[in-house]
Amino acid sequence: MNNANMVNNNFGFVNFGGQNGTFINVNNPNTGTINGVKTNQLLGVNDHNIAVGFYVDTAGATHGYTYDIATKTFSANIDDPNGVGATTAAAINDRDQIVGFYTDGNGVTHGFFENGGVFKTIDAANATATSLLGLNNFGEAVGFDIDAAGRCTALSAT
Fold first, then answer.
1. Residue 4's Cα: distance from chain center in Å?
2. What is the pLDDT of residues 44-96, one digit of tens each?
3. For residue 46, is it left (φ>0), alpha (ψ between -120 and 50) or beta?
4. Per CATH, which fold does 38-157 belong to?
5. For residue range 91-125, what is the model confidence (pLDDT) as tens digits?
6. Distance (Å, whole) CA 147 – CA 29
7. Domain spans of the chain, in order of start
8. What torsion, rounded to 10 degrees, do the Cα atoms 40, 41, 46, 48 define?
9. What is the largest CA-CA distance in the chain?
10. Is residue 38 within a helix (H) or strand (E), and if so which, with residue range?
């Protein structure tokens, strides 16, 4: 149901079989309920049927994760290096490299690139916020940044 007042649960899903397929809800088991609402989203998938997304826990922290569609299993959390708990995994390529963004303890948003468990912060030059939202198989990411004047600019990074 859409109440248009932000009190709706939202879940990730997988669609098997295309346009007339079956939708399967995907809910990370660590997803919490805050004010009666659960938030869990899948945002990207690669050709190996590994999806990425995030969930919100009972304390209100967001955590990135991967979901293996074939085995229906969840990875450990993908979290920012400082453990603030404000991480969103947004895209995954066929090399299982992941990009997304996190917010640090000072409220600054940073892009990230994760490869084989190594988490690297990506900040655009002169930006006050960076978010990475897409990733191709060459390791090239796209997203946006915001500068000190509040201007938003499309971004690509390697």
1. 23
2. 999 999 999 999 999 999 999 999 999 999 999 999 888 777 999 999 999 99
3. beta
4. Neuraminidase (2.120.10)
5. 999 999 999 999 998 889 999 999 998 999 999 98
6. 37
7. 38-157
8. 30
9. 47
10. strand 37-38
